[in-house]
Amino acid sequence: MSQPKNETAVLVLALFLTLGLVGAGIWWFSQLSGSRNTTQNQNGATGLTNQSIPDRISLGEISLLPETSPAKEEGIEAISQGDYSKAIVSLQTSLQNQKNDPEALIYLNNARIGAATSYTIAASVPIGSDPNGALEMLRGIAQAQEQVNSAGGIKGVKLTIAIANDDNNPQVAQQVAAELVKNPKVLGVIGPYASDVTLAAGSVYNSGQLVAISPISTSVKLSGFSRYVFRTVPSDYVAARALANYMTTKLQKTKAAVFFTSQSGYSQSLKSEFVTAVSLSGGQVEGEYDLSDPGFSAARSVKEASDRGVQVLMLATNTGELDQALQVVQVNNKRLKILAGDDVYTPKTLEVGGGAASGMVVAVPWHIGANSSSQFVQKSRQLWVGDVSWRTALAYDATVALIAAIALNPTRVGVQQALLSPKFSPPGAAGNVRFLPSGDRNASVQLVQIISGQRSGAGYDFVPLP
């Protein structure tokens, strides 16, 4: 039976109104997170491969981590539906079961804000390639967000954080940067991770006048690279001189060999700075060995260095060649002294290196053992139920810097100008955050040594040198 014409018209009008409202809601939400076509990987988790760039950026409507839980999935689904009350309950439940999940805490704080007015920053992290490194960064970012929002926000306005997975890949990071630049809501970015990635994405952030603060990138090439690219970690110049000085004065050794990765900008930077610093200290580098060379042999290289009269081995490796660097540690077996850059500061070094790594000295920007009574450390232990690394502390400092800059002037250009002000000096985990005109942080490094201990659970710990 056909309906009267006036009833049909009303139904059609209602249908168009409904579609319009749904479309408007989707448009509003996509302003930050972008349209999504989420795929599933073989493990059932959210797919991290073959993703469009908008699918790599999330306010909470998608999990970017490879592992999740039923309660967290419920919270994420609720956020995607705009049901923030349900999302809050589910994410709180998830955090009760897995307290050290920074993604869940960030999404919880975002859900608490809901559709209310907020300031927004983004975190560009290497989830796809280095999930542990990404988690370390996100814990510092989440802690700073929790801290400012619990105190009422930035002059009464809460802070929302978008998480972006850049895979620690220069090309992907550039595309992520372009996506963030074109969204006017985003006032700053924490990241990227590796120096090569920050250099690649930095040109995009510079052209878009969007500040990016890396907590990890140490290459000297970043000094003065852009007035919109900053870092809270000291450059390789600082770390190399600290290690060279320790070698020539404390150890009283003058001959070294360097193990590095020719494919890594960070590794090349640290190697070059160390060679220069040793030379200026009256020593010399007798050999350079490329860990990424397909024909690399740890045994042959260590023997050759020893035959040349080398007294110290310097590991300027990046994360990708850490396994080869640890082969050097095992082959050496404590015969020659070993120094290392901050990428060697990982639980894997303690677990795999074991007794052979005992006595190794590593230069890091910050260590919890030298700051155990600080407010940051006390709060981090409450949040994450364990000790945090320098990557977490420096990511926290980068977030604190953006928060302080937004409080002074909540515009992109205003944030950049605030960071460069000589009076800018908010308190962070690793001291007050001050930036030089080059974008570098005005800070030193901490030397730590591997010794027997139980804190890490591996039988060995990194502890600060006196």
What attributes does this structure have?
Rossmann fold, alpha/beta, 2 domains, 466 residues, 15 strands, 15 helices, 7-stranded mixed beta sheet
> Helix fraction?
40-55%
User: What do we call the CATH homologous superfamily of the largest domain?
Assistant: Response regulator
Which secondary-structure class do the elements indicate? alpha/beta
- The neighbouring-strand order within the major sheet is 8-7-9-10-11-14-15
Average the pLDDT over all residues and give the rounded result.
90
**CA-atom Rg in angstroms:** 24 Å
| CATH topology (fold) name of the largest domain | Rossmann fold
The total tally of domains equals 2
SSE string: HEHHHEHEHEHEEHEHEHEHEHEHHHEEEE
CATH architecture of the largest domain: 3-Layer(aba) Sandwich
N→C terminal distance: 90 Å
Count the beta strands: 15
Contiguous runs where pLDDT drops below 50 for at least 5 residues: 1-49
What profile does the largest beta sheet have?
7 strands, mixed
Strand content: 15-25%
Which of globular, elongated, flat, extended, rod-shaped describes the shape?
globular
